[in-house]
Amino acid sequence: MSQAPSDHAQPDQARLNQPIRALAITVSNRAAAGVYEDRSGPVLAGLLRAAGCAIVDGPVVVPDGQPVEVSLRAAAAAGYDVVVTTGGTGLTPADLTPEMTRRVIDREVPGIAEAIRSAGAAAGVPAAILSRGLAGLAGRTLIVNLPGSTGGVKDGMAVLRPVLGHAIDQIRGGDHPGPAAPR
Fold first, then answer.
1. Closest CA to 89 of 159, 149, 34
2. How far is Cα of residue 18 from the mean position of the Cα atoms in its chain?
3. Per-residue pLDDT tens for 107-146?
4. In the chain, what are the domains?
5. Range 114-117 contact pairs with CB under 8 angstroms and sequence separation of 24 or more
6. Predicted local distance difference test score (pLDDT) of residue 17
7. Prediction pTM value
């Protein structure tokens, strides 16, 4: 007796060729309170565009904690392909972005966060290993946490950029690329 393929095995044909929709979220208690201007969010939005995201919303600025969870859930419900946060990944008691992200994601994609930390450390930023950022899927939305500095955003997006299109294709149900053609 054969079973019908699961929904996860079927490509989402309607989405496979759609432009990538991205949302940039800045997590900062002080920027959300108007104490200072968000600097990393605009950099993130620009780098998402440079990475091939045709539609980039934000940056949306929220304080850390529960507002992060609310924003991530709303973004996934709105059908964003990728949501990248900046900020709230450090060690202070107020840095809760990874905890809020963990509440939202269904499946973790640890290689992204590991590669971001590793690349930062390899580039001579020892504090990069202190970032507690996560990456994972909330339904069909990829969520990635980056540090709150402009440098951390640039370094993190340098890691994410080369794999983002392939990741979104996979999430949409696309197949793995075949072997390279012989030269």
1. 149
2. 18
3. 999 999 999 999 999 999 999 999 999 999 999 999 999 9
4. 19-171 (3.40.980.10)
5. 115/159, 116/144, 116/146, 116/155, 116/156, 116/159, 116/160
6. 79
7. 0.89
